[in-house]
Design a protein that fits this description.
The complex is a heterodimer. By secondary structure, chain A is of the alpha/beta class. Chain A is built from eleven helices and 14 strands. A seven-stranded mixed sheet of chain A has the order 3-2-4-5-7-6-12, with helices on both faces. Chain B is of the alpha/beta class. Chain B has one domain (about 5-280): Thiamin diphosphate (ThDP)-binding fold, Pyr/PP domains (Rossmann fold, 3-Layer(aba) Sandwich), CATH 3.40.50.970. The chains are: A alpha/beta, B alpha/beta. The interface of A and B includes residues 57, 69, 74 and 105 of A.
Chain lengths: ~325, ~290
């Protein structure tokens, strides 16, 4: 793992989903077993980039996600390495039983890509806004779950998926989003990235929330609070060691996710803390609500997911830590 | 060997599959006798004659595949594979026991010779379609056979798979539609009917359809497979007009999806299957 943090709260000129295509182009060149299956959403993530390069290994399954997952499993059984894409809502809850039995239980290396995670679905609204996509995969004992933050990380982690030997799910931001990492950065699945080392509180975030976490850290620093910031791009297998070591070090934790809190990154981390090192913890994310239409920045405020919300949660966690000592 | 002799051999094999299937289900005491009996003849044709496979190397890349999308037919598959040497068939007399390699629904992670895991109806046919596509992509000259139940065809996924297979012209995929006319809650036509019929449906989805008038006649099944092999463009649906429980008089009569029998009833139907085997193999008086 070697990365360079270049975050300055500005939007990348490139679309995040293009990182997937560019990475796939490389993977498909290196490995003739890799195939991509789409569900009539090639136009949404510019799959034509790989379709033109590898017309024999890119398939449209039409608007039939259950079959697309099943076909991917059959392909995997013959030794192929299938990637399947649909919107996150359909790539998870709509095909849960297919994912669970045909892929997860069957132990086939099928790599599912779910686009428009959480509030990034924005104007597409509730029907297309997955707050629970990762939850479905969290129930599967052997699944890998990844929530990348930007172009560079999407590019790097897509490449790593080829070596995952069982079911995986990666969220894919479709549009341009804030740059966090330099393009040559590399990441390891299952290993969180320590972006800032602090002593007062640890913020663990993933996906679009990493940018807000970094912004929150700046605000906290101005208030004299020293926060650790962790990018937990892999939700499963979770980097338990890092979580526990941070918990022991700072004694207060805030998680920030673009997902339903009842069954997401925060709850997975809470499980680790309860078993290993219970400390005051606050969670930022969607709290028992469905999605809705709106611009991403407005939704971020609506669901209390902004940098300022993270700051307030950190202050609460630190206070709880102090109260406990008293 | 003449065709007549070959057909006779397959009839004997089908009777053996029936007998062993019943013994396997009897080891548990209850199970899907009806849906196992209806496919026994087709399994005999596949594993007795048409399929290429290696019991000592179940994952041989060049093999033909067989997927039981109607996964509850597992015991019939276990009997067939056991009789063909993938394992000692008596090992399957542990059906659904703790730590068994023989769960009632087929599971490739547990049983040698089972190609894909099924059990949630509708999923196996999609997996079979993927296997056919994968083999074609790797220039493997083989066929994927998949059993789909008539009740199973209620599932929407079956038709998603059907349209995909036709769209990508998977002529290396041959589906056997086990039209035994019964599902768990009763007659298919009462529970959920199939409009103009399953043959018409597969035809409308762009498949080559071969109707087998007696889906429990090994010669008719064998001829249908040979006809299927001539198709150059389309996936093939061989629609088998079968009898649920075929060969087990009491189940033929009841049409039961799942049977719970007592010890005496088991003895009666196993004796019936043994008598049938003796009669067909010409050992009646032996």
């Amino acid at each position: 793992m070697s990365y360079r943090l270049v975050w300055n709260d500005t939007i990348d000129s490139r679309k995040c989903c293009d990182a997937y295509q560019e990475s796939m182009k490389k993977i498909m060149k290196q490995n003739d077993k890799v195939v991509h299956i789409d569900c009539d959403l090639m136009g949404c993530i510019d799959t034509k980039i790989i379709k033109e390069a590898y017309p024999d290994r890119v398939f449209n399954a039409g608007i039939a996600e259950a079959n697309a997952v099943g076909v991917a499993c059959g392909l995997a059984a013959t030794g192929m390495i299938p990637f399947v894409h649909s919107f996150g809502v359909f790539a998870s809850r709509r095909v849960f039983d297919q994912l669970f039995l045909s892929a997860g239980y069957s132990r086939w290396p099928v790599h599912v890509i779910g686009s428009d995670p959480g509030i990034t679905a924005a104007y597409n609204g509730a029907t297309h806004m997955p707050f629970e996509d990762c939850a479905t995969y969290l129930t599967m004992p052997n699944a890998t779950i990844i929530d990348p933050v930007d172009y560079a990380q999407t590019f790097a982690l897509t490449k790593k998926l080829v070596d995952v030997k069982e079911l995986s799910y990666m969220r894919l931001i479709r549009k341009n989003f804030k740059t966090v990492y330099a393009d040559d950065s590399d990441f390891e699945i299952g290993k969180g990235v320590v972006l800032k080392e602090g002593k007062d509180v640890t913020i663990i975030a993933s996906g679009i929330m990493v940018s807000n976490a970094l912004k929150a850290e700046e605000i906290l620093r101005k208030q004299g609070i020293d926060a650790s910031v962790i990018d937990m791009h892999t939700w499963k297998p979770l980097d338990t060691e890092l979580i526990v070591s941070q918990a022991r070090k700072t004694g207060a934790m805030v998680t920030a996710e673009n997902h339903q809190l009842s069954c997401g990154l925060g709850s997975a981390i809470a499980n680790v803390l309860i078993e290993n090192c219970p400390i005051p913890m606050e969670m930022i994310g969607i709290r028992e609500q469905y999605g809705q239409c709106g611009p991403q920045d407005v939704l971020e405020k609506e669901y209390k997911m902004s940098a300022e919300d993270i700051v307030e949660a950190c202050i609460r966690a630190i206070k709880r830590k102090a109260d406990r000592k008293d | 060997m003449t065709k007549e002799e070959k057909i006779h051999e397959l009839e004997v094999f089908a009777a053996q599959i029936r007998l062993e299937t019943l013994k396997i289900i009897a080891s548990r005491g209850n199970g899907h006798i009806g849906g196992c009996m209806s496919i026994a003849d087709t399994l005999a044709v596949l594993y007795g004659e048409v399929m290429k496979y290696d019991p000592k190397n179940p994952l041989w890349k060049q093999r033909d595949w067989c997927v039981l999308s109607k996964g509850h037919g597992g015991p019939a598959m276990y009997a067939t594979l056991g009789l063909k040497g993938f394992y000692d068939v008596k090992e399957a007399y542990t059906l659904n026991d703790f730590k068994t390699s023989f769960p009632s629904h087929t599971d490739h992670t547990k049983t040698p010779g089972v190609d894909l895991t099924t059990g949630s109806l509708g999923q196996g046919i999609s997996e079979a379609v993927g296997a056919a596509l994968g083999n074609r992509l790797q220039n493997i000259n083989s066929h994927v056979f998949v059993f789909v139940g008539d009740g199973e065809a209620d599932e929407g996924q079956v038709w998603e798979a059907a349209q995909f297979a036709a769209h990508y012209k998977l002529n290396n995929l041959i589906a056997f539609i086990d039209d035994n006319k019964r599902q768990l809650d009763g007659a298919c036509e009462d529970v959920m009917s199939h409009g103009k019929g399953l043959s018409a449906k597969f035809d409308a989805f762009g498949w080559k359809v071969i109707d087998v008038k007696d889906g429990n006649d090994v010669e008719q099944i064998y001829d249908a497979v040979n006809e299927a092999y001539t198709e150059k463009e389309r996936p093939i649906a061989i629609v088998l007009d079968t009898k649920k429980g075929k060969g087990v008089s009491s189940v033929e009569k009841s049409g039961a999806h799942s049977s719970h029998l007592n010890k005496e009833e088991w003895e009666v139907i196993i004796k019936e299957a043994q008598d049938n085997l003796n009669r067909i193999s010409g050992k009646e008086n032996a």
